[in-house]
Amino acid sequence: MSYITDKVIIVTGASSGIGKATAIHLAKNGASVVLASIDGDGLKIVAERIQNEGGTAIYKKTDVTVKEEVHALMDVTLNKFGRVDTLINCAGMMLFSMWDNAKVDEWEKMIDLNLKGTLYGIAAVLPHMKEQGKGQIINVGSIAGHAVGEGHGVYSSTKYAVKAITESLRKEMSVKYGIQASLVSPGVIATNWQDSVTDEDVKGVLDNLKEVAIDVEHVARTIAFVVDQPSDVLINDVIVSPTRQEW
């Protein structure tokens, strides 16, 4: 029996990387997916691919750092499908830098997207999930939310925060209302995320990580495993990483 089939699932960051791979994988397994990202053209391409392969997908260009846009995404989903079963908070950015270089603008971008974007998604779906008596919130963290490496400082801080948010949700919302709160923490994956890094002093760190990176599809399958659970089963915290990655 599949618990993915017929679920209505919102996926943020769905135009690329983990979000894109996860949305495609879930749609292939019978979910109706709602795609969100700031890249409207990218979302259209992903939605058309899913539809051409026989799946169900809609999309809405959404900046998850703007709470009004996240609530509008929720409204679109409810108007189309009548419910939300799962929220997957995939939107995020990883901008490694050394403390010496004080990349304050980049710190603020990561805090806004990785932390506030996650919180706004949670705030948008919680009232609905409480009313329906069940639901899933899956936050995509990082292995950097379990261990801090060189150049990881602020990025790791945002992912440690996501870990804390998820555990707090579990204690309050899972226990009281049956809303499953899960964290999936990937290690280094091959999505060209390194191209966004501007700090030349961390290039050596990035080169070492690129050597062991795994395909994003492995993360998508791990997230799907978490989705594919009955409402009384919680997969709380999963790390999926390259075998050769040293924490």
Automatic annotation (TrEMBL):
<dbReference type="Pfam" id="PF00106">
    <property type="entry name" value="adh_short"/>
</dbReference>
<protein>
    <submittedName>
        <fullName>Short-chain dehydrogenase</fullName>
    </submittedName>
</protein>
<comment type="similarity">
    <text>Belongs to the short-chain dehydrogenases/reductases (SDR) family.</text>
</comment>
<keyword id="KW-0560">Oxidoreductase</keyword>
<dbReference type="GO" id="GO:0016616">
    <property type="term" value="F:oxidoreductase activity, acting on the CH-OH group of donors, NAD or NADP as acceptor"/>
</dbReference>
<dbReference type="InterPro" id="IPR002347">
    <property type="entry name" value="SDR_fam"/>
</dbReference>
<dbReference type="InterPro" id="IPR020904">
    <property type="entry name" value="Sc_DH/Rdtase_CS"/>
</dbReference>
<dbReference type="InterPro" id="IPR036291">
    <property type="entry name" value="NAD(P)-bd_dom_sf"/>
</dbReference>
